[in-house]
Design goal:
The chain has four helices and 18 strands. About 5% of the residues lie in helices and about 50% in strands.
Length: about 425
């Protein structure tokens, strides 16, 4: 049986669509210009541990989304998105799921949800959106790297006074994890094995942001209130220099400050993080090479692991904006103060059809957590012509140095995706 908030949100959108259908020929564009889109994905996840005491885990699932959007009526429109996943009984649920990774769709065999159900008004200057939707901000985002993204119920308002400048405000009332079907008032910290683990409901979050980007300059500033967790301020800026022979140097910096808020459900928070990234843009749109650095200074008076960050909507998913965050590990995930270095490349070959991202990251977090080294190779091929929309992707990650998992762990994630 669908939860009540699912029925209400879906019913509101459907009722609005139905009423508009009877408003006459003037509204015919809502339906003649409507569009249906979607994504189908097949995903195979495996994780192997060098430590024989820890069971290797794996999972397979087929899923995606189907989305219907009305046409535009004087700026007004509506959308409805259905998300689903099914393991086709190919995942191993034996021994109380000890061989199953829950990253794809939890511990069940099927998962489905009405993940988007919204009304919006949009013109060249203004966007107003209410209902179930995706979010795309540095510390509150979709994290859409598996089958079903993180989704949010709330409101968005954004204005674009001129090209490149955007001012945005978001209010989150409820949250849907990647691996749950319902929208609840908890956060990622309610998921199993989360550290810290917090299952209490909260009033959600507020985010206010300003961003600007042109050919050479980028900048963003965000303020967040994670109710009963923390207040967070985030700054990021970058500059791309004029071409030096055939390459263009670039540099970026970032800074974050966080303090606890309200009931401080995760503990006392008094954290900072800063980082820098420098690199070269390669000629002919071939990609970039870069080196990145992040540091989270220790603070022994903070209740959250010696000054580490609290990120209620990205923690554990490693979808935070720190430059050195990787496939399955980062300073936020480490739950410890320290620093990290990353050396990487982002290559775009074969007329931008083939993406290759190799990266090496070294985390120095002792004595708060073990020092970890991670290796990543991310390869994706995007088809064109008659197979346009089809993508094959393989992400291989190796973590070295975690004593709880043995000398190393190996993650391999294979995804076949078709967008239409």
């Amino acid at each position: 049986m669908l939860p009540k908030n699912t029925i209400y949100s879906t019913g509101l959108v459907l009722l609005t669509m139905a009423r508009l259908a009877y408003a006459g020929d003037e509204l015919s564009g809502l339906f003649t210009d409507a569009k249906l889109s979607g994504t189908l994905r097949a995903y195979q996840f495996t994780r192997a541990f060098e430590n024989n005491a820890t069971s290797d885990t794996h999972a397979f699932a087929l899923g995606g989304k189907l989305k219907a959007e009305t046409g535009d009526f004087h700026g007004f429109s509506a959308g409805l998105g259905y998300y689903f996943a099914n393991d086709l009984n190919l995942s191993n649920h034996d021994d109380n799921n000890s061989h199953l990774t829950t990253i794809l769709m939890g511990e069940g065999h099927t998962l489905s949800t009405v993940g988007e159900a919204y009304l919006q008004y949009k013109n060249d200057l203004l966007l107003l959106k209410a209902g179930r939707q995706t979010m795309d901000t540095p510390w509150i985002n979709a994290g859409d790297a598996t089958l079903i993204p993180n989704l949010y119920q709330g409101y968005t308002a954004a204005i674009t006074p001129y090209e490149g400048l955007k001012i945005e405000a978001d209010r989150i009332l409820a949250f849907k994890h990647r691996t749950t079907s319902g929208f609840d008032r908890d956060t990622v910290l309610a998921t199993p094995n989360s550290k810290p683990a917090v299952t209490e409901d909260t009033d959600g979050a507020i985010a206010l942001g300003v961003s600007y980007k042109n050919a050479s300059v980028s900048a963003k500033a965000w303020l967040y209130r994670f109710y009963d967790y923390a207040n967070l301020g985030y700054l990021q800026a970058g500059y791309t220099f004029p071409a030096l022979r055939s390459v263009q140097p670039f540099a970026e910096v970032q800074y974050m400050k966080e303090t606890d808020s309200g009931a401080a459900l995760a503990g006392a928070v008094d954290s900072q993080a800063y980082g820098a990234k420098i690199g070269l843009l390669l000629p002919d749109k071939l990609g970039s090479v870069f080196i990145a650095y992040n540091k989270v200074p220790h603070n022994n008076e903070a209740g959250v692991t010696n000054g580490n960050l609290v990120s209620p909507y990205t923690q554990g998913y490693v979808t935070d904006p720190l430059y050195t965050s990787g496939l399955n590990y980062g300073l936020v995930t480490a739950r410890a103060a320290g620093e990290a270095w990353q050396l990487g490349m982002k290559l775009s070959l074969c007329n931008q059809k083939l993406d290759i991202i190799p990266a090496f990251t070294s985390f120095h977090t002792e004595p708060y957590a073990a020092n970890i080294q991670t290796y990543l190779v991310d390869v994706a091929y995007h088809f064109s012509d008659k197979l346009n929309g089809l993508t094959l992707r393989n992400r291989l990650g190796v973590n070295h140095g975690n004593p709880q998992w043995g000398d190393y762990t190996i993650d391999n994630r294979v995804m076949v995706s078709y967008a239409f």
